[in-house]
Sequence to fold (284 residues):
Amino acid sequence: MPQAIVRHIAINYEIIGHEGPWIALTPGSRRPYNELLNLAKDIATAGYRVLLHDRRNCGSSEVGFDASASEHEVWADDLYELALQLNALPLIVGGSSAGARLAILFAIRHPKATQGLLLWRLTGGQEAVNHLAQEYYGQFITLAENGGMQAISQSDHFKSLIAARPSNLEKLLHTPVEEFISVMAHWKACFLASASLPIVGATEQQLRDTSAPTCLIAGNDVIHTPVTARKASKLLPNCEIHENVVTPYPDDQLLKEWDRQEWKQAEPKLAKIFTAFLKKHGIQ
Fold:
């Protein structure tokens, strides 16, 4: 797969499709991009070029720790630079969960480079913030404090990054443990500060100021609640929301964890909704 050096970090990427407007799609958590390959192919057949990439600290890309902003802002700026190198701007930016946060922050930080937003499984609320702050940051802070960077390199997530790119081991072991802990603590603090916001990573005013046409598909679990999607849809000035793409549940009976298989089976439906939305807005 091709790679680009983006802000001193090697980023693994793939382009699906040969012509048409550019769309960047990003999965949730710190998972590699390959889970979105089938969705990208479905969308590309409608006349689009889909850019998939492994974010720093994800998949086959290089590890890199930057405390100049939140993790999701760092990812958004990395995507902007990658798209700039590929002459792929302006972008339609889309994603699921953490990928949706990246997309919204891309639109906030680079509005002139954003042609549209395709979002699904938005994250918000105290329960989501507390759980994910520990999963993404807290556990690694504790590991590093107790076992240094050797312990980090042996954790499930970073072990997978080393397997995908062996040079990540040396880079991890040469990262000062105090620097790693400091970055993780900063990213955790940024994440925890989102508990009172309508969605993780963006204020009400930032969402109101996001003018890009937005297609939003609601989640159905306690981390990606329909309430969060509804709040965002009311704040985003040019937003179309879909609440029945996956099984809808009452707000007090949501799934404890997202059903990956249900969302995988829904991908053809997502592709149709997204491409119809883009064509309706003349983005084709």
